[in-house]
Write a structure and sequence with these properties.
384 residues, alpha/beta, Rossmann fold, 2 domains, 4-stranded parallel sheet, 12% strand, binds coproporphyrin III, binds fe (ii) ion, EC 4.99.1.9
Length: 384
């Protein structure tokens, strides 16, 4: 992966007095599934048939998503890494769509006396779904609590760590996971030289993809950048090149609405038709093995691969891999230095710049040129 930029030297987290680990949330038991799906889809125009289908995915796993336990593991790993470096900073966990909800997390920040916290969202890429929606939910919840005015929060102040898809820690952890995936393929009797590496991420509507360019490069371009970095590192480790593609999973929305393609199942079919026999799927779009991975990849895409007679392996997500967790703490220190007005080197790998710590006007809207009218924190203005 070439030269790795040095980690920030200062261990100063001022002006922050808490880290908010901010995630999507998921159901813990069957009775949670419908209310959770209602929270996720309010005002989104997702067809009922799709919702029933997604509900079945959750019921198939006992009505419980693995995402909450995975976030607790990440929280524990972050706490351990902070302690290892001698950094004293409480970590508070909250979710947009399930318990502990955003408002619970803000209660907790108030309880511990936090004045200014920094949010780390469990989405590495920038788009409406991975960036602005998190920022909007923070603002809307503060507004409901009567803690928002034109200048932002009147309670605990909240900043955000930049989209970290091209941070060395995230890329390194993905490279390690893909290399492990290739080792598993070999153990299964596959041929790493002829295997196809299929990077996978969550599909989004084409309109959301187009709007995501304001954040410095589109959602798909961000993934291609990570993919190229991982492929370069993998070729070094394996001693030969590997052919690769980017495919998408978890499409929803009406069929009339175009979303990013190819779908991973269609893509596996096309590969098999082309004579490919071995595949490694790498879910670089997700930070842990939550339901999109457990169902859409491990259940559905693996079944497709089986029907096609492919030897297939699903590589791991970054989850609590050491380079990822270390990188997140580096990003926290970087963000703190930026908040203090210091000149910091923002580490990246690949061809794209470090993404902004304070989102630009019009960044990551749902659709191009359509301001939502919904306030959002951590940007250049509450309604920009
Ligand atoms: C880019 C992206 C990420 C990655 C970034 C990030 O991690 O944030 C992500 C993550 C996740 N998506 C998740 C679940 C769902 N996403 C849905 C719907 C949608 N996702 C979208 C995009 C994304 N989603 C979009 C454009 C929609 C259409 C509606 C809308 O415009 O918002 C729906 C509704 C039903 C359906 O349509 O599938 C569900 C249930 C879970 C929880 C999994 C668990 O429980 O383990 C997680 C981590
Ligand atoms: Fe989603």
């Amino acid at each position: 992966m070439g030269s790795m930029p040095a980690t920030p030297r200062s261990l100063d987290v001022a002006p922050y007095d808490a880290l908010l680990l901010y995630s999507f949330g998921g159901p813990n038991k069957p009775e949670d599934v419908v209310p959770f799906l209602r929270n996720v889809t309010v005002g989104k125009g997702i067809p009922d048939a799709r919702l029933e289908e997604v509900g079945e995915h959750y019921y198939g796993f006992g009505g419980k998503s693995p995402i909450n336990e995975q976030n607790l593991e990440l929280k524990a790993a972050l706490e351990a890494e902070l302690a290892r470096r001698g950094i004293d900073l409480p970590v508070v966990w909250g979710n947009r769509n399930w318990e502990p909800f955003t408002t619970d997390a803000i209660d907790e920040l108030e309880r511990i006396g936090a004045q200014r916290a920094v949010a780390l969202v469990t989405s590495a890429y920038s788009s409406y779904s991975g960036c602005r929606q998190y920022r909007e939910d923070l603002a809307v919840v503060l507004e409901k609590r009567g803690q928002l005015d034109d200048s932002g929060s009147t309670g605990v102040e909240l900043d955000k760590i930049r989209s970290y898809f091209n941070h060395p820690g995230f890329v390194q952890a993905n490279l390690d996971a893909v290399a492990d995936g290739f080792a598993e393929l070999v153990a299964k009797g596959g041929d790493p030289r002829s295997a196809r590496l299929v990077f996978v991420t969550h599909s989004i509507p084409d309109t959301m993809e187009a709007a995501s360019v304001v954040s410095q490069a589109t959602y798909s371009a961000q993934h291609l950048d990570v993919a190229r970095s991982v492929v370069a590192g993998l070729a070094e480790r394996l001693g030969h090149d590997v052919a690769w593609d980017l495919a998408y999973c978890s499409r929803s929305g009406p069929p009339s609405q175009p979303w990013l393609e190819p779908d991973v199942n269609d893509h596996l079919e096309a590969l098999a038709a082309d004579g490919v026999t071995d595949v490694v799927m790498a879910p670089i779009g997700f930070v842990s093995d939550h339901m999109e991975v457990a169902y859409d990849l491990d259940t559905e895409a693996m079944a497709t691969a089986g029907e096609l007679g492919l030897t297939a392996v699903r590589a791991g997500t970054v989850s609590t891999r050491e380079p990822f967790v270390r990188g997140l703490v580096d990003l926290l220190l970087e963000r703190a230095a930026i908040a203090r007005g210091e000149d910091v080197a923002e580490a990246t790998v690949g061809d794209l710049p470090p993404f902004r710590s304070v989102c630009a006007p019009g960044c990551c809207l749902r659709r191009d040129g359509e301001p939502s009218g919904v306030p959002a924190l951590c940007g250049s203005g509450l309604y920009s």
